[in-house]
Structure formats: C-alpha cells, structure tokens
Amino acid sequence: MEAIREIKTVEKGHVNICLPRQFWGQQVEIIVLSMTQRDEGAIAKKSLRGCLHQYANAAFIDREHEAWQNAVDEKYGDCGCFTLDISCG
Fold this sequence. Notes:
1 helix
C-alpha cells in the first residue's frame, strides 16, 4: 500500500489534491486531521545529555578508559595480535 501525505490549507471548505496516475480509477481513503499552528523555527531541540546519570557507578568511573578493551578481551580473548591505544588529549 502506498501513501501520500500532504498538508493543505482549507479554502472556503475545499481542498485540492492532485494524485499520481497510479491512483486514478481506484478507491482511496482520505483522512482529514486538523493541524495545530506552530512556528517551525521555534521548536526547541531536546538534549539527552545526562539522562543516564542515575545509572552511573562511581566505582567504575576510573576504569572507563579501559572498558572497551576489557569488553573485547572478555568476548574474544586476548589474542595478542595488537594493542590499540586511543587517548584523548
């Protein structure tokens, strides 16, 4: 099922919609919903920063820098192939 979404302004009780040829001669369902007026430029973006702080474990904070390497070693074993050192600053 293909769907088309268009936002139109009702003028004098009428809305004009031009449908593609694939819809010609077929029954279609038209759903009309009123839109709330909003200023598109005024929509504030919400940040997820800090949303998981409640799950932080202070005992592990000092070990964060080695967490990825430990997880790989635990899953795949220490293959001894290489050591990847990613230091920030």
